[in-house]
Amino acid sequence: MTRDIYRLMLPVVSLAVLLAATFWLQPRAMSYFGLNLLFNLAVPIALATIAQMMIIMVNDIDLSLGAFVSLVACVAATFLTDAPLTGMLILLALVLAYAALGAVIHALDLPAIVVTLGMSFVWGGLALTILPSPGGTSPDWLRMLMTLKPPSVPMAVAASILIAVVTHLLIVRSGIGTVLRGVGGNARSVQRAGWSVLRLKALAYGLAGLFGVLAGMALVGLTTSADANIALRYTLLSIAGVILGGGEFTGGRVSPAGAVIGALTLTLAASFLNFLRLSPDWQIGAQGAVLILVLAARLLFTRRSARA
Amino acid sequence: MITRTLLLSAAGVAALAGTALAETSDKRIALSNNYAGNSWRQAMLQTFQEVADKAVADGIVAAADPYTTSENQATEQAAQIQNMILQGYDAIILNAASPTALNGAVEEACNAGVIVVSFDGIVTAPCAWRIAVDFRAMGREQVDYLAERLPDGGNLLEIRGLAGVFVDDEIHAGIHEGVEAHSQFTIAGTVNGDWAQEVAQRAVAGILPSLPEIVGVVTQGGDGYGAAEAFRAAGRDTPLIILGNRQDEMAWWAEQRDANGYETMSLSIAPGVASLAFWVAQQILDGQEVPKDLTVPFLRVTQDTLDEALAATPEGSVANTVYSLEDAQAVIAEAQ
Q: What pTM did the predictor assign?
């Protein structure tokens, strides 16, 4: 339990520091309206980060997530609006495809990094087929959901808290979540305990597919329409978000709340650099520097707690 | 005494600037740009900077700041636009990564009372202004020109841009309309040159062995020189290649003209269109009635203007013009 708190402390502190710096630089951000503008585009990133976390949880990595979210966005902006039932079925099929992918990767003992890299071209090609040129419209209910103005707490903040709580209950508190993390920690003993690792991996990938679908839908709700390349940067952002949020690449050591906070931190870091008026040539470098800084701090923390 | 001179000169400036300019002296304009990685965009940013600095120095606007996203991604640019709303800009001029994916952010800006003027890469959000390029016409005119020069027709090679980008779709559609109108031409092959010389050269070199005799190459700009190099390397006759105003293309053209009387034409959009967008935004802030859809004129280089255009274009850049307030007013008047 204390380790979990340690794991979560650093992401929380980094977000708080960055938020304070942003408010100091741009006081207008310190309002209902401002917070929403700062964070609403972080909601799909947070969902994509949770999707990536499901894969990292079972010791794999997903390089196709950005292309997958783009594909979902294209489906949501076309089929889901024009023929809701077909749209729903396609999205369901995509989630099942993800689960099947997990099963295949496990059954044939394939490296996930290679399979998902290959799949990224499949998703990208499908997205281009559905939407050869940018367009489509978001379903009205999705647009309404993403532009809700709940009293006192901006939609972006409320949604982030909701995502964190739901996934925390699912992954950290529930029995099946513990077993799933066990697959990443020690697959052999999970198998000896009588679980089918094949099914568990399919479940983990299926959950990733589900959150990938949610990410794509949230994105379309915000942008109002789609584009086959719309979410390509989510692949790397989601990996960075998981790690920034206290997750590790191996051992099933992940934190859903941390992943959400990691996604918010990454979004905020970009805005912060924008407010600083840093030249774009330096921005990618500076974002990298923020990442390295947080990871270095984490190393110091874990070393100290190991010694204690 | 000093105060008095200052007052006098201030009055003088105000009188010179006229009423149209005084209205916007406290307004701030931001440029949201999605990409800076080619010669066209570099020239665009430079022209904007020149015009913006002068406008700020003259007191026409309070600030005009350019921002470029680092990864050329729509989601990143949407965040950038939302940041600009927070920074309190009065107008955003926008070269968009996607015509549709930024609409959510653009609507947020409009709702916050920010004027949004998109140009080159336009957005479809109804509340934004669009300074569009008629890319279809650009494709059509290439084939029209070829029909004039090669009345017998023949096989064409089409070099397209980056797949999935709407500029590419539009020029491509225009070229097809042109080929339909001039049925003596057939498109024998299509490659994606990504608007870059090296990519175009590789792609053309790859497809050439499988092609019959090619009489003309229709392009999208930034790919003409690469195509010419690929034809030369394959030992084939140089066809009539339509060029896109890049310096290396025009230099190659001049060289060929001097050597063997090569004739072609070159057309593209001047990167200075950013300065046109700046003045249009200034006019809207000034309270002028401006239609939502405006059209940018093409910049055309012909056999007669080649030497002049080549001399004025720095190496690695693209032929350019800087638009003035009067040019913007003319474009607005034409659309009304």
A: 0.80
